[in-house]
Amino acid sequence: MTNWGRFILRRLIRVVVVSLVLLTATFAAVRLVPGDPAQKIIGMTTDRTPAEQAKALARAHRDLHLDRPLVVQYFENLRDGMTFDFGRSFQTNQEVRSVIGDRIGSTLRLAAGGTIVMLVVGVPLGVIIGALTNGRRRWLETVFSGLSGFIGSIPPYVVAVVGIYFFVNMWSIFPRIPDGSLLDDVLPSLVLGVGPAFLLARVVRIDTLDVLNQDYVRTARSKWLSVRRLYGRDVLPNVLTPALTIAGVLFASLLGGAVVVEGIFGRNGLGSTLINAVQIGDYPLVSAISLLFGFAVVVVNTVVDLTLAAIDPRTMVAT
Amino acid sequence: MTRRKRSRIRAFAGTPTGIAGLVLLGVLVVVAAIGPSVWGDKATATDYLHLYSPTTGSHFLGTDGSGRDLFARTLVGTRLSLLLATGSVAIASVLGVLLGAGVASVGGRVQRIGATVIDTWLGFPSILLSVLVITVLERGAGAAMIAVGLSFAPFFARLTLTSAAAVASQDFVSAGRLLGLSRRRLTTRYVLSNIIDQLVVAIFSTFGQCLIAISALSFLGLGVQPLVGAQERFSIDWGVLLDQGVKNFSAAPAGALGPAFAIAIAGLAFGWFGDGLARIFNPRLTLRRLTPRVEPTRQTQTESAT
Amino acid sequence: MTDAALEISDLEVSFGTGKHRTTVVHGVSLRVEPGEIVGVVGESGSGKTLTAMAATDLLPAGASRDASVWRFRGIDLLAASRSARATAFGGKIGVVFQDPMSSLNPARRVGAQLADTARQWGRRSRSEARDDAIDRLRRVRIAAPERRVDDHPHEFSGGMRQRTMIAMGLMTTPMLIVADEPTTALDVTVQADVMALIAELNQQEGTAVLLVSHNIALVSEVCHRVVVMYAGKIVEELAADHLAEHARHPYTRALIGSVPTLEADLSRPLTAIDGVPPDPGQLPAGCAFAARCPSVTDRCLIETPVLVNGVACWVAT
Lengths: 319, 306, 317
Fold this sequence. Notes:
Chain B is an all-alpha fold. Chain B has helices at about 5-15, 15-45, 70-105, 110-125, 125-135, 140-170, 170-180, 185-220, 240-245, 255-280, 285-290, 295-305. By secondary structure, chain C is α/β, with parallel strands linked by helices.
């Protein structure tokens, strides 16, 4: 088998293993809930006759596989997870799959927007500051690490509140009521991406300094390439390797931020749905959405690994 | 005072951000201690003649929809926010270190599986983990504290595991193994005594993040559940205040901005203080600060090799 | 007099600014004629590499250069802008560095790294540059260059990488090749190979070579002229064939003495030089070599010798 074949196989195995860990964790979480989760349905949906009530309870038991031995429950749960069949929401009786289908678009746009802001701001900023502070401009280094540490440590929901205050209330740059245009995604994406962007820029600056002092950059300088060629071909690809690794880690926290921030912007996405589901104990929705988020993190990290291998084939051997 | 201690204090004093963090933390602790008793009445007194009042001489941040003073409420919220953050850091560090040491002391295949679980746990967005834990427990301040503690525990577990691996590869540990000491005894004897410094730094850098996470949970209605009446002053944290503020954002934006800034400042204070501590415990960083910045790096690299 | 290939006079190289400023190369003048092979010899820290890097505009960040004359193929570089220096050097110089393992970009294919110069300075198209790369790889005796051109550097051996570095210099028609310890990191069997290649280029193409090395035996074999550096200064400058018999500076003689030759009596230990060189940033008064010199006099400890008739020594002149 080729190096690539082996590498992809190893990464796929890891995705499967981590997905199993996630499925097991969500299974354990829901099973640990005190009392009968099926009873919760009764509390949520009213106006039923006693006979209907008993039928509904039995169906809930069946949906959650509560009528089977624990081991069987576990494997049924695994099967449900793999086919992404989580039954119906306790609250609305809607299929979990269709609820997710309705809400996922908004969250995807938000996460993608935040990631774009993180990469488009973070990488160039880090490279530029790195190039400017290579062996000189100590003051810029101090200012930048102070500033980036400050911005990077502010949680996204605080950024959101401050952002809405200035950009919506004071300066009216963005509409108060979402109008369905792409503009609705801009402020939330900026809010979500700005913190990770500065954290990324910190790391990229240090990597840039490191790369600029590598022997192969001296080789490139000895070829007198244009600045565009030098940075584009010799510096950037080597900076991207560690930058993408960090971006993968930051993506997880960005996704977490999206969960918190959706409500502030009045977005009806997976995050706000999840929070609502937790508040009322709608377990099928809770486990499905958490699994989906966990899976997204695993997939993104795998994509990062594959991209790294494409940029620098040595990483295939190392891991 | 030992020489080492004195030089450490000097190293800390040499970091302006560390000092700033320490001062800010001092202020926060004082506000937390006296908050509910000093500003409690003002924070809970309703004034229906001054609803959604803007900033005035008597109301620094204005008032909310019941005429309660928003600045006083923010100050009162300090206590619960800090207490819950402390609790969750305690849970995270104790649990994490125990787990890391446990995984480090078993070895072999079990250790690898343990490490994979810790890394998966670590890679999972912490807010989602907290949300899952709260699903299991009943919503409330205690649940939020446990949830945040659990979601930050893998951080300490990884730290312990990594240090254990580093220590285990050193010669004196190999010697100890040759002498027949068990892996568990080696772990506790050498690893724990070696990571105290790193642990202290980690606790303070995690503190701010835990506070931010707890506030997020309260903000989402999954953490602190505010009581009404006389107990209110002890049952509001910045997250709850932020939630109330965001709900009335157009009428009184200060209601959200106050707690938002409080959370940001507290997070920053812990971060700065943690950085200062890290400089103390990491002499390499301190050294870099004290020696002239420009060193002939290329020269040492190319010339020393010739 | 025709223009020298490379010429630099009264070169000073310093690190830092203000009170942290340390000067490590002191008033070095160097001239490489077209077609000439000049060797710069010295111990670690003698400033030989920095001299070569300063003359070719490759100083590391944080280092600064000062000189009274600086010309490359007759073009004045002292007042030239960065882009003017790029036009002067671009495509006309090849540089081979000490460590072949780190001097090639690990993230790029070998062929692409070779093609850079041809694309930028030879105005070649992508496919022409690739053909050139294959041709030059063959020229430096890389087997199956059509296939290896798409390899990444980590798939090459150390000797292959060093030959690739030379091939990189050959993508255009360079006037000067600067080789900084080109064989130090290589196996003994590969060393001769690489040096033969450099010498061959000099003979066939008339390319001038500036060879920096700590190895005086190697330098005396291939060079026309040798410059000996000690603690940031030139102590002796002489024709390579005079090295064995006519070296005058005690340091040069000590260097020669530390080289094993076929004629040497193997039962006697090699003459090694006792002690360590001073920090070129903090030179003592008088001659920098005085502390280690076997023929030191009182004058050597007080007065700094200057380079006269190719040697900087009170005893030798």
